[in-house]
Amino acid sequence: MLKTILSISGRPGLFRLVNRGKGMLIVEEVATGKRTPAYARDKVISLGDISIYTDEGDTPLGLVLDAVKVKNDGKPVDVKALGSDENVREYFAEILPEFDRERVYTTDIKKLLSWYNLLVNAGITDFKPEEPAQDTEEQTEA
Fold it and tell me: Which of 5, 36, 84, 110 is the most exposed place for a label (fewest CB within 10 A)?
């Protein structure tokens, strides 16, 4: 599901991929449903391609969003109620204890939580990464 949800640099919010055109994408704002084009010059990234730095490597964004959903019982996070940057980082450490404290900035955490809120408010709650299709056919030898 996250493969079709996009972040576009310079534009607030998240977008759902609707269609592809010549030299552009047709995207729909997750919050409002308004459709607009995103051109080749725009920096577009799929949420399915984003990961969070951890001490052991990287954790896909979908798994982190799912952990936020579990911690909050599927409800939005009140980021302002968390208060200071230190409190935001402590809250995130409860969700992902092994996050790399030097490479993950507080602004990154706040952006992740705001994306989570946008997705939950739009009714998008399936965050787990899609598993690649397994070849279930048995191979026979001739």
Answer: 84
Measured in whole angstroms, how far is the alpha carbon of residue 10 from the centre of its chain? 17
pTM for this model (two decimals): 0.83
The string of pLDDT tens digits covering residues 70-102 is: 999 889 998 888 889 999 999 999 999 999 999
Q: Burial of 114 by CB count in 10 Å (0-12 exposed, 13-18 middle, 19+ buried)?
A: middle
Give the Cα separation of 67 and 127 in Å (integer): 9
Closest CA to 64 of 45, 37, 92: 92
Which is it for strands 5-8 and 15-21: parallel, antiparallel or unpaired? antiparallel
Separation CA 42–CA 86 (nearest Å): 33
Per the document, the length of the chain is 142
E-strand stretches of the chain? 5-8, 15-21, 24-29, 35-39, 44-46, 51-54, 57-60
